[in-house]
Please model this.
Amino acid sequence: MPEGWNLTVNINGQRRGDMHTNRFGTTWFTMDASIAKTLFNKTLTLKLSATDIFNTANNDWTMNTYGVFVNKRQNYDRRGVSLNIIYQFNPQKSKYKGKTASEAEMKRL
Model:
């Protein structure tokens, strides 16, 4: 990405299958993404985010416990968009100029 830009994509999901007395019926995945831009020497950050972009979140399962069957079919609409504006007052660069502790520890061994 060009200087000051940051792109993030998160994908989460589950395949159908069995767990103990539960049978999860539907394969699902969700995808979230965000893009951020830093401005003014990293004092201002603008971030635009979107959640569940493809509207695929659901909760379908069947439970069989001692002959009692429970079926659940539920679709969520978790899609959303957000804009974050972050301003850092008096940002300072790191003043640490020493070596890392791991380097010193390796030399000691």
DSSP finds one helix and eight strands in the chain.
